[in-house]
């Protein structure tokens, strides 16, 4: 029986298609909260826009399920006298994929459309024959005759820029679009809250469903909200790489495949007891899963929760994703459903005052 409903998939499409660049997540957070509110008892947000809903807010023992809301983007950094716009990164934006992409420049006057230009192949010869995109040479063209016209459009240094691609379903099997990293995670934790509500499950602890900001520039939103909530445990979900596509070395990046289930991480920041509870749940409920290892840090909000305050038992469940930080990120629908199910079933195994001490 499918977990994701038509109504929830309609929300997913609207949520992914909405721009939510790092530092400017508010419109996406409003969409997310509006969807979440019927399934929780209370909600709030912090000073920088991390949003969360709470089930059983009066309970002393607190468990967090978390994803991050922000997407990679660009900042306007310089406008030439000819009217071309040069950029810097806001998060881990990939300059290699930029040329020929259409973009939305966000201004107080509204969206201004533009394109990342690139010299035609006919003009690239001699030393320029193998010209490669770099952060120094990519540029945006908005069709303006000069800098003054660009400024008149409402564009200025500091305006944020996002790609305009939208969500689609490929071969009835994959969600495809930009910002599945990690808008899909926010969708999954909201679906967990929906399932708990619809199935009338009573949890013996307070559950905080958290959609953090500013992960893409250093886990900043998770750092702040971990200190605010002070949870007793945290289950974080993010995306990881499908390493079975061309040009990725499995000996270096591990073996993870879309369609084979969510990936459960081993790492110093991951609490062994909480991770084992999740694995035991997956095996008991026959939920497919994969294993992954991270050497020093996970590079996800797991690290921020784990090392906050006096330390928070934390675990990471990742969704395999193809072509991360592009406009065609791909997530298998089965993996999304199994990720939702795994978080949901794992929560039902956690007891009030659960003992996470090693001995």
Structure description:
This protein is an alpha+beta fold. It has two domains: 6-71 and 178-347, Zn peptidases (Aminopeptidase), CATH 3.40.630; 73-163, Peptidase M42, domain 2 (Elongation Factor Tu (Ef-tu), domain 3). Helices cover 27% and strands 26% of the residues. It has nine helices and 17 strands. The protein has helices at 6-17, 26-36, 147-152, 180-198, 220-229, 250-253, 272-284, 301-306, 333-347; strands spanning 42-45, 51-55, 62-68, 73-79, 84-90, 102-107, 110-117, 139-141, 160-163, 168-170, 174-177, 206-212, 233-241, 263-266, 290-293, 314-321, 329-332. The strands form three sheets. Strands 1-2-12-3-13-16-14-15 form an eight-stranded mixed beta sheet, with helices on both faces. A hairpin with a 3-residue loop joins strand 10 (168-170) and strand 11 (174-177). Helix 1 runs antiparallel to helix 4. The chain is globular. The mean pLDDT is 97.
